[in-house]
Amino acid sequence: MLFLAVLKPDGAIRKASGAGILKGLMDSGLCRLCSFKEVVVPAQLLAEHYKHVSHRGFYPWLIRYMSSYPSFVIFVEAERENIENIRRLLGATRAHEAEATSLRYRYCPYGGANGVHLSEDERAGRFETKLWRDTLGIRKGQFDIPIEEYIDAYFDKPNHTLELRRIFFEIAKGNSSLAEQDKRIRELLREESVGASEDRIEFLYWVLTDQLE
Ligand code: ADP
Ligand code: MG
After folding, report:
1. Reduced to 3 DSSP states, what percent helix, strand and coil does the chain have, rounded to the nearest 5?
2. Who lines ligand 1 at CB under 6 A?
3. In which domain, by residue range, is 193 found?
């Protein structure tokens, strides 16, 4: 059956992160990626999609995070019994809690900026694929660029996930401060975000640090 995956704006801007997540999904043999369309996701669609967390404190952050820059919409074909394993391969929702074997551990440094969305079960798969298809007009089989080409272009670009996570943990523990690490964080993000304009670096910095202190 069909599920919805979204390469979120952080995964799209941090190039090796996005390419690594896509490669991990493709190499897993657990699913097939059947579309790859770049869109700035409308806030109204996100309000429907994320209704279940609209009461949470992080919700305003989440909507701004998801609607400010382009994402890639990916319809995913998988056996329904595989979805749990694919979600496990992605790792915990909060990236700093992701297991060392997961993709988020390798590619997403910290917090709710977790690089990628995937429908959590059959019911969500049905609801989300219909909602996103009806709202955006994207269909299975539509690709802006073949995913293999995207992976080849970006997989070996710099990935500073582990170093960034180390810094964020130091700040979270109170051993360092954002003011002290500010320059280094921006430097690492700039290096990962091949070809990105400075406003995208600022966006990433905000997404990753807003919930830190
Ligand atoms: P998932 O995406 O793993 O199914 P949820 O549906 O609970 O998780 O939440 C939707 C999105 O909201 C998450 O992918 C993540 O980006 C963000 N999020 C969830 N929980 C938190 C949290 N405790 N702190 C920050 N962001 C969160
Ligand atoms: Mg969910």
Report:
1. 55, 10, 35
2. 50, 53, 58, 62, 93-94, 111-112, 114, 117, 120, 211
3. 161-209
